[in-house]
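A protein record pairs a chain with a discrete description of its three-dimensional fold. The following entry can be read in just this way.
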Amino acid sequence: MTDDELDRALFALPLEEPPADLHGRILAATVLRPAPTFRAWEICLLVAAVALVGSATTWLFETTPHAGSSLADMIVAGARGLGLFSRSTYVWLAVGISSVWWISSLSFMATPRLSVYNR
């Protein structure tokens, strides 16, 4: 069988039509795909930094006497400095959270968005 006969046989096959949005889906999955947020070396660097901080913290707590109570005292002092032991802080926090919940539950008319492929 020659190449011409093979080409004619292939073109004579009854093929199904592709979906209408096939071209757009292929482009969205390949060329128009968003770039990854982090590169591989950035993730490796982040993991190494977290491991280093974790090992340094473990070493610090194992070698320093009373490190746990000192850390707890620093946390309490920081919380007092930020005003987290005041009732007004929690009242304003509740007002803010309830305002966010109320505003986010309002129903506005949705604006139609046109897709890049439906123009």
